Every structure is written in structure tokens, then in C-alpha cells.
Amino acid sequence: MDNNLSYVRTEMLQEQTPPLGERGIIRWMRINLFATPMDTALTVFALLVIAWFLPGIINWLFVNAVWSGPDRSVCSTVAQGGIQPEGWSGACWAYVNANFSQFMYGPYPIDQHWRVNIVAILFVLLLVPLLIPKAPYKVANAIVFFFIFPIVAFFLLVGGWFGLPYVETANWGGLLVTLTLSFVGISVSLPLGIALALGRRSKMPVIKMLCVIFIETIRGIPLITVLFMASYMLPLFLPPGVSFDKYLRALIGVALFASAYMAEVVRGGLQAIPKGQYEGADSLGLSYWQKTGLIILPQALKLVIPGIVNTFIGLFKDTSLVTVISMFDLLGTVKQHFADANWASPQTPISGLIFAGFVFWIFCFGMSRYSIFMEKRLDKGHKR
Q1: Per the UniProt record, which residue ranges are transmembrane (predicted)?
Q2: What is the pLDDT of residues 268-298, one digit of tens each?
Q3: How far from chain centre, in Å, is Cα 260?
Q4: Three-state DSSP state, 92
Q5: For residues 346 and 333, what is the distance between their CA atoms, to the nearest angstrom?
Q6: Tens-digit pLDDT profile for residues 197-219
């Protein structure tokens, strides 16, 4: 037997960097853009489309755009009564800049804007720690955010107490209406939707029937109909002298509408839980509420995070429908100012709509990205 081990290396080789094609941006492009001939063709086609349209878009949005000015003359050509040369076309951000306060606050009194700003700052300060998984005092933070903050926000925004001037909700508008409607709708629709989903799966016939009737009735009619009924028909059924604020009626209508859709999303998650989970909880002697709160609901809600956030995003965008009951959110306020003769020009409407669309996109994209983050963080048992 040959015991000569001179051919065996006695020292480990130094670690070498991966080939250039297996790391960094080149690897990402090879996997995501040029993995197959079809991917390569689609990538080249997409690049050609971008190269064709992007320069013109950038030119209109930024290069030729007007950023400041006193009136419509800065966003109109000479033939239209303005100062721009013939053939000019660009975004009229001067219109957005001049009406920015209206787009944010609506007709809310200018000298009281500080109250809205304080509410916005409190909202951000309480929401951000709630969204950070490792932030401490989660329970206390949630209690303050969902129970104490709405009361403080109500007293600040409405006023009439502690020396604050009263501001009726008819003077609310712009992004203020969009955010308050969506926040209340989201906060109410999720717990109410969970209750409706559990009720629909209940073994008690009366509760199940009531939940089914509510869900199917609400899902069978448009949100516009719900808003019309809440705004114009509900007062007809109230006793003489009894009335609800129109904004409160809109809040109730939006929350109830979203809760019906949320109930079906949650019910889908409940049905996706294997039967063994229910049997395992029963074998431990857990009560119905212990089983539901500790075993079933956490798993079900984790599975339907995309559906829940999709409902939130839809609710956030649907707040624009309150325009039909003479309430003006961000989009409604932007469209309302199209009639301002001081800024009437061919470039004004599209500039205002792009601004409103960009604001909506920021909030919806933020919700979408946080949804993806939470999915990756919680998806431990279903990874492929």
C-alpha cells in the first residue's frame, strides 16, 4: 500500500470571487432579462418602447414644464393669450403650485391649517413604529393609534372645544378628506370584515343568515349607490329633527361597503386552513374563541395579506366617489379647480390629473410594498 501523500494539498487555497457573470448587475440581467431568447426579445422590445416614449415624457414633465407663474398666461401660447411660443407643450406645475393648499386642505380655513398639520404629524409618529416589526410597546402603540388618536384628531379637526373654532365638515376637502375617509374605512372594515367572515361560517343559522344577507347585498350594489343612500335616503327614515352629518354618513357607507369585501377575503383565508389545525386545537381543549384567536385567525390572515391590502388600496382609490354627494376629495378638488378662469389653459387639466394620480400612486405603492415586506417576513411555512 502506497503511503505517499505528497499529492495531497496541505494548505487551503484562498477564496476566489465568483465569475463576473455570476454576481452583481450582470447576473441579475442574465437571470431576469436575458434568460431565454424570448426574454431577450421582450427586453429589447421594451427598451425600444421606452426609448421611443421616455424622452418626450421627460421633456413634457420637466424640461418644457412651467414651475411658477401668476396665472394661465405662463401655461398658454401666444395664440391662446399667453406668453409661450407657438407649438409649446409642457406641464403646468405653476397651476399645481398656486392651488397646492386647496388640494391638500380644501376650503378648510387657512388660519386653522396648523390643526390639520398636527393631526398629520401625530398620524405619522404613531403609524411608523406600528409598522416596524422590532419596535417596542406594540400593544400600547396600537391602543393609542386606534383608540386615542381618532378622538384627538376629531377634537382638533372639528373644533368647537378648548377654544378651537368650529369647522364643519362641509369645509373639509382635498387630501384631508381622502386620508380621513380611507383611514376610518380601513380601521373599521378589517375588524368588521373578520366578524362577518366568522359569522358567515357560524353554525348558528340566524347569525349566518344575517351575515350572508349583509355581505351579498352590499357586494351586489355599487359604492355610488351606497353613498347616495347614506347621504340622501337615510335622513328620510330618521325621526323629525334627527340628522347625521353628511361626512359621517359617508364614513359609515364607505366602511360598511369595504367590510363586505373584506369579509370574503378573510373567509377565503379561513377556508384555506387545513382541517387538522381545527382538530389539533380541539384536542387541546381550547374554547371556540381561543381556537379562533390563537390558532386559526393568525394563520388565515397571514395567507390573505395580498387580498387584504388589495381591498385597502381599492378603498383608498374609491374615496374619489364621494364627489357624487358633493364632497370633494383630492381628485374632486383638482377637477373642481379646472373651472378657475384664472388658470384655464389646455395644459391645466392634464397637469392637475397627473399630480393627483401621482399622490394616489405614492400611497398605494407604499401599501403594496409594505404588504410584500410582511409577506416575506411571515411566510415561513409555505416557502417553495
Answers
A1: 40-62, 114-132, 139-162, 174-198, 210-235, 247-266, 303-328, 348-367
A2: 999 989 989 988 988 888 888 899 998 999 9
A3: 18
A4: strand
A5: 18
A6: 999 998 899 999 999 999 999 99
Answer for the pair 249, 234: CB distance below 8 angstroms, yes or no.
yes
**173-336 has which fold?**
MetI-like fold (1.10.3720)
CA dist 252 → 103, 170, 272, 321 (Å): 24, 16, 30, 14
Please, which residues have CB within 8 angstroms of residue 364's CB and are 6 or more apart in sequence?
313, 316, 317
User: What would the DSSP string read from start to end of 228-296?
Assistant: HIIIIIGGGGSPTT----HHHHHHHHHHHHHHHHHHHHHHHHHHHS-HHHHHHHHHTT--HHHIIIIII
CB atoms within 10 A of CB 267: 22
C-alpha cell at 278: 381545527
| Alpha-carbon span 309 to 217, nearest angstrom | 23
Provide DSSP, 95-111: HHHHTHHHHHHTTS-GG
> Cell numbers at residue 378, please?
411571515
First to last CA, the chain: 49
Q: Is 56 helix (H, G, I), strand (E, B) or coil?
A: helix
Question: What is the pTM for the complete model shown?
Answer: 0.86
- Nearest Cα to Cα of residue 200 among 258, 290, 282, 260: 260
Q: List the alpha helices (DSSP H) in the chain.
A: 24-32, 37-58, 93-98, 100-105, 113-131, 138-143, 149-158, 175-200, 205-219, 223-228, 246-272, 275-283, 288-290, 297-303, 305-318, 330-336, 348-378
